[in-house]
Amino acid sequence: MKASELPPAIARGVSQVDFQVDYRTALCFIVALFVGGWQFGVFGLLGAAVATLTAVVLGVSSDRVTGGLEGFNGTLIGVALVLYFDVRWVTVLLVIIGAIMGSVLTSALVALLGPYNLPTFTAPFCAVTTIMVVGAPAFERIWRGRSMAAPPSAAYPGRELTFTDLWQGLFNGVGQVFFQSKWYVGLIFLIGLAFAGRLVALSALLASAVGIVVAIVLGAPAADIGAGLYGYNAVLTGIALTGTFVVLSRLGVLYAVAGAVAATVLTAFVTDFFKPVGGHTLTWPFVIVTWIFLAAVPAFSGLRRSPT
Amino acid sequence: MKASELPPAIARGVSQVDFQVDYRTALCFIVALFVGGWQFGVFGLLGAAVATLTAVVLGVSSDRVTGGLEGFNGTLIGVALVLYFDVRWVTVLLVIIGAIMGSVLTSALVALLGPYNLPTFTAPFCAVTTIMVVGAPAFERIWRGRSMAAPPSAAYPGRELTFTDLWQGLFNGVGQVFFQSKWYVGLIFLIGLAFAGRLVALSALLASAVGIVVAIVLGAPAADIGAGLYGYNAVLTGIALTGTFVVLSRLGVLYAVAGAVAATVLTAFVTDFFKPVGGHTLTWPFVIVTWIFLAAVPAFSGLRRSPT
Amino acid sequence: MKASELPPAIARGVSQVDFQVDYRTALCFIVALFVGGWQFGVFGLLGAAVATLTAVVLGVSSDRVTGGLEGFNGTLIGVALVLYFDVRWVTVLLVIIGAIMGSVLTSALVALLGPYNLPTFTAPFCAVTTIMVVGAPAFERIWRGRSMAAPPSAAYPGRELTFTDLWQGLFNGVGQVFFQSKWYVGLIFLIGLAFAGRLVALSALLASAVGIVVAIVLGAPAADIGAGLYGYNAVLTGIALTGTFVVLSRLGVLYAVAGAVAATVLTAFVTDFFKPVGGHTLTWPFVIVTWIFLAAVPAFSGLRRSPT
Predict the structure, then answer these.
(1) Which domains does chain C have, with CATH numbers?
(2) What residue ranges are annotated as transmembrane (chains A, B, C) (predicted)?
(3) Quick one: DSSP state of residue A60?
(4) Binding partners of C (≥3 Cβ pairs within 8 A)
(5) Of C272, C275, C296, which has the smallest distance from its Cβ to A111's Cβ?
(6) The predicted structure's pLDDT at residue A148
């Protein structure tokens, strides 16, 4: 692999979070991160770069590296750790350690999931970040006076749902994949997705809406819905199941809706499950649901996996 | 598949919880559920029907559908959710969502466990119900003033073991597979098992006894023993390991006893593990123990798997 | 298998905890356990014997038995349970039940991990001991007035790191694999490792140092570092990745260092994760990290698995 191939590989390491390789998508995503806050852009790229370089040094096959498949978990590790542990030198160290761990875990999962034809998705990011966040209180230098991040609903318990929650939640569901909770940042991500294809952007928006509807019907707090917290796992699941990994069909769309509903229900589960130990929801619901929904496809004569 | 094949498929979806397909067993089980409470019968059948129909719509192979293998997790999801969330419209919605999720998870596990020749057992039910119960407090409409169900021992701490605990516990160990805690309901289930074969009923009864003995020796609370809470996982493990999935032999019986002991020990573990997040024990101990005990069989020259 | 082959098989069941089969290593380890406390020696050998005998009775292939691969999880189960539940008859019973469960789980994992060419490591010990310790409060006869063991740092919060912590921590990192926290017991284990090969002892010592450095940099409590609690998982990971399961090379050493770092970070995670339910860290971090690092090797052209 040539050195000149590294920058595009790292850029694709940002867009691959949403399964995309188009360079315009990648640019939009990077812009969105910087609009969300310079630290998200810098630490996200740091994570993607360290993860990608680790893969190169260890000798991962070059098509995975250039496709950005070795970088995207590093991106999210960088963004998540700077969010939880602030801009500090120890955070830089943690992102480097985390991205290396995530890189090894990626290759391990490629081997373990290969026989079942399942991608790693963001599982390495989820695992490494959960390990760091749950373990952090044991380390004085990381934790120092920090406390568990509370969900938006903690500040506004019992608040009524407003129209603002609805439309901002729709965009935030797209942005929260990268921990962003400003609606216009979500919109930039959505524009990036549109460069990858109209279907992708449409799937994302509809899945975000499905997440919101399920959350309203079951009675989730309004502030969390408005922040997009019940949408982002549905968004990733929705994109994955409509055309990306499952061939598009009428039944396939229903299947994707079921997946988005399941991801929303799992969001509440993962959040509550990790509460006693201070873990975060991350994209665990998407990973679990989409693995299950893809693993099940061969048993169903009505559905087909996309050729990879 | 013809529409006329659906009702027997759904009925077998009740008896397959205990690995049985005999229609008399299925009828006894359905009667037992209604004797336990009309809501258990109705929601159990609802869950079995939705799960079976989902499998049909998605195109699962018809021998699995007609054998009831696509329905039994739905049955338990229905019974469990009406127990935890009462007779309400939101519970109907949850059972439908849960049965669909359970159906997809069943097909995913069939694919994932296939190479190891392991059945899904009640894992889809355990997973879906745990997700629903742990996640429920996040949803106002589901939770509304509800609190975690306390075990019987909470009301009678330190009570002495009585003869009534012993003999009722023996039958309740059979009934608790379906969350039933009246001894005569357990007896109806046992009669149903007898229709499937004398060995099956005997295994169930002996395994229930093993669970009680282990619980007494280790010092579990009398009220929980009497309610059958330390027996039902041993019962399922016992039936599975004597003749059903392992060829019957002298060593095989010892192996089944070891499995029943392990399931009883795991009952305490799973109960305590889920306590901080409000999860329930369900049949996790049986699933974990029996998967392990079956996966190990090929390594043992003294034991053999039953031909399927 | 002849009866005379049993004692050496059981002895190797002690040294296999550190992947070694040399009889001098085994003798040193047994001596170290007795120096640590007679109960550790007796219960460790009891666990190894029960586990090995279970494997013989069930008919496991004799090369696994004579190599000590069927005994080492039993050894640790015996040592751990006598540490947590004291010298009592109920502990003897628990060790017997636990060693049988661990033996079956070992064979199950051999089958499940076989396709990926991963050893069981101490996973059966970790699983069985976690099950016992988390489940114990449910059983009056086991628990009786017991409380969760507190880490050394609980007694000395905020104490400064001393030179004694450093050099004793280095040896304790080797001894804590067997729950031993006296530096000279760790030294006897280290001498045992030296009989197996200079590289093995060197790897152990360096990995222990890596664990200490990472713990200091991230700010772990001094008392825990001195007790070796941040070193023993790094020690096992270090030995496993340098020559034992991965061919030694310059990149391989870097890989092993990354593994030791990851094991130290995971130590904090596992400790915090199990806190709400009273579980212990055990060697979970080593098992998880080393499985992942070995599973990833085939994806890396720069590394190679050792021939087994």
Answers:
(1) 7-143 (1.10.3430.10), 154-308 (1.10.3430.10)
(2) 26-59, 65-85, 92-114, 120-139, 184-217, 229-248, 253-270, 282-303
(3) -
(4) A, B
(5) C296
(6) 67
